[in-house]
Design a protein that fits this description.
alpha/beta; TIM Barrel; 217 residues; 46% helix
């Protein structure tokens, strides 16, 4: 049985990784604060967001132990090391990138590589993934998670892509340990208009959905 780090245990307990992907310079720490206020305890800044690493540093300092801050869309070892140096509590990739997995394992940082097919999912797990991000989940559906888990029950899956409060429960009830939620949660217009209360409200709604789904499981 694999060792479960405190970071991983906390993410599984919350059941949500909020994906923060924005197009231009944004008040990233304010976005993180709003989501954490809504009860989400794992925040992923995509490296494609301008100022992402600075956002990680500022958000981690502001939030303290209220939430974990990680980095996503990591494609190579250099970026993984930069993310960890910035204080990333976990690293997420969109694809099966073995050198990123090796780097994170060596540095003791949980890593969630992206995969789609059963072959990729198993390869990611055998390479050392803590959780496998099934992406794009919207192209596969919740029943895909259930079917993959039948022969691979030990593999922890986090569907990502097209997840929202309206369908998160389906994926959790299918056996996902968490869901990755981005655009349906972090509304770019709300961020641009600094309506952070809307992000908090959406976060609260999603947290309630996850809790209800787990009670019903």
């Amino acid at each position: 049985m694999r060792h479960v780090s405190p970071v991983l245990a906390r993410i599984e307990a919350c059941g949500i990784v909020a994906i923060i992907r924005l197009d231009g310079p944004s008040p990233l720490a304010d976005v993180a604060e709003a989501l954490a206020a809504g009860g989400i305890e794992a925040l992923e800044f995509t490296i494609t967001t301008p100022g992402a690493l600075r956002g990680v540093e500022e958000s981690a300092a502001r939030l303290g132990d209220r939430a974990l801050v990680g980095v996503g869309t990591v494609l190579d070892e250099e970026t993984a090391n930069a993310a960890i140096a910035a204080g990333a509590a976990f690293v997420v990739t969109p694809t099966l990138t073995l050198d990123v997995i090796r780097t994170c394992r060596r540095r003791g940082v949980p890593v969630f590589p992206g995969a789609m097919t059963p072959t990729e999912i198993l390869a990611a797990w055998q390479a050392g993934a803590d959780v496998v991000k099934v992406f794009p989940a919207s192209a596969l559906g919740a029943d895909y998670i259930r079917q993959v888990r039948a022969p691979l029950p030990e593999v922890k899956l986090m569907p990502t892509g097209g997840i929202s409060a309206s369908n998160a429960a389906e994926y959790l009830q299918a056996g996902a340990v968490a869901v990755g939620v981005g655009g349906r949660l972090v509304d770019k217009t709300a961020v641009a208009e600094r309506r952070f209360n809307l992000l908090t409200q959406r976060a609260q709604e999603l947290v309630q959905v996850v809790r209800a789904a787990r009670r019903a499981a």
